[in-house]
Amino acid sequence: MAIELRALEHFVNVAESSGFAAAARKMRTSQPNLSRSIAQLEAAMGAKLFERTTRGTAITEEGRRLLPHAISIINEIARAQSLFETPQEEEIEQVGIGVSPSLLYRGLPAALGALTQHPDKRNIVISTGTLEELLEQVRKHAVHAALCIVPDYMSGRRSDHADVTFQELADEEMIPVARSGHPVFAAERSMADLSDYDWVVPHQMSVSYRFESAFFRRNLTVPAQRLNCSSMHLLMTAILDWSLIGIVPRFLVERELAGGTLRVLDMPELHFPYALSMITLKSAIPTEGVAAVLQSLRTHMQRDPT
Hints:
Blueprint: H1 5-17, H2 20-27, H3 31-45, E1 50-53, E2 56-59, H4 61-82, E3 93-99, H5 108-116, E4 122-128, H6 131-139, E5 145-151, H7 158-161, E6 164-179, H8 191-194, E7 198-202, H9 205-216, E8 224-229, H10 232-240, E9 245-249, H11 254-259, E10 262-264, E11 272-281, H12 288-303
Parallel strand pairs: 3-4, 3-5, 7-8, 7-9
Antiparallel strand pairs: 1-2, 5-11, 6-9, 6-10, 6-11
Helix pairs in contact: 1-2, 1-3, 1-4, 5-12
């Protein structure tokens, strides 16, 4: 006679519960069903496994010998079944954030570091790009929000950007800088003189436009932009090692300015007001998790944008 797994489970539970009534309640079955199962197991084994007495149910010597084998069989079958079960993976919410490249060096790392220590597990995906590229990502729902250096006039152009919200987190300024030993500082210079030097300008439409317009509106020759790039590391290398003059966010070079490695050109016409802003789509309704991430970023960037 074949031995059923269920009969072994019944046997182990009766032995561990020291009685049929308690085992029946534990296994959510009736005592008659339990008694029939044990009787069939005893018939298959050819041995009596329990003795019913006036004091209750007692396991026999044969039952004690069978018990460890029955437990082992049940456990081994459970292990075998687990080999083919698909593990339940913990669902981790993904939050997409687009950022201006300059923020990867100052401000954002501290904010992201705080988020990684949060007990709620979330996967934060960072993408970089120009302001124009990140605006497109926000509109296409590729990211939940974008942190950008935005020209001061942009948030007021409702006709172009009525579908997004610009939340200003901190004031910023794009400034002209060069290494301290650069020839441009050898004498007092005019805007016209600056046309003779080579420049590096961030690869962002609004910066290039404002830089060129500052010369064009004064009927001056626009300086040669030898390099346009979105990499802040490359931009700083061009200024410090290649003797190019650059337009950079002030917060990016505060340490270099304080240490005397870089100097600001005394040219107010090339100082452009910007704002550190968070851009979100007005029609988007963030989940609780996304909203928590965005609020944490706002708090950290407002408190310490540098």
